[in-house]
Amino acid sequence: MKNKHLISAPILGALLCPGTSPAQEPAATAGERLFRTRCASCHSLNTGENRVGPHLSGLVGRSAGSVAGARYSKALSASGFVWDEERLHAYLNNPRQAVPGTTMSVSVRDQAQRSAIITYLQNLSTGPIH
Question: Which of 11, 36, 72, 80 could form a disulfide with 65, with the two C-beta atoms 3.0–4.6 Å apart?
């Protein structure tokens, strides 16, 4: 049987999701999986749904400590920075070093895992991708 009518998976993916390049897909997929296993028990992606930590919808480009109704440490509330890729890498690598006094204790030491999670969050954010 000839397969002249079959479309390869990357081509089909590009046709169905034109805003996503095949190179971005694996990072986003890995990032989503890592988010679910490493972050989702404390953070939601739904606006207004705070858990132990604030929701992360629209995180990139948002001022730290600014989600209404979320419980923040005094240190994070007073930090005065905006979340971007550089801040997220530093914070996820070692939250208590990046923001002394923060209550977040979970870290993601592996750079590839951090990058995948950050890419996933950037793709979900309404702000600019940094």
Answer: 72
Please say if the pLDDT value at position 22 is more than 50.
no
Provide the domain limits for residue 74.
22-124
Q: Domains in the chain: how many in total?
A: 1
φ and ψ of 21, to 5 deg: -85, 155
Whether residue 39 lies inside any domain: the answer is: yes
Give the tens place of pLDDT for each residue, 35-75. 999 999 999 999 999 999 999 999 999 999 999 999 999 99
- Residue 75's nearest CA partner among 104, 43, 35 is 104
42: domain CATH number is 1.10.760.10
Distance CA 95, CA 1 (A): 57
| Per-residue buried b or exposed e for 111-128, using 16+ beta carbons within 10 Å of the residue's own CB | eebbbbbbbbbbbbbeee
- Is the residue at 119 inside a domain? yes
Strand partners, 63: 82
Report the C-alpha gap between 102 and 91 in whole angstroms. Answer: 10
What are the CA-CA distances from residue 108 to residues 42, 111, 116 (Å)? 14, 8, 11
Residue type, 79: S
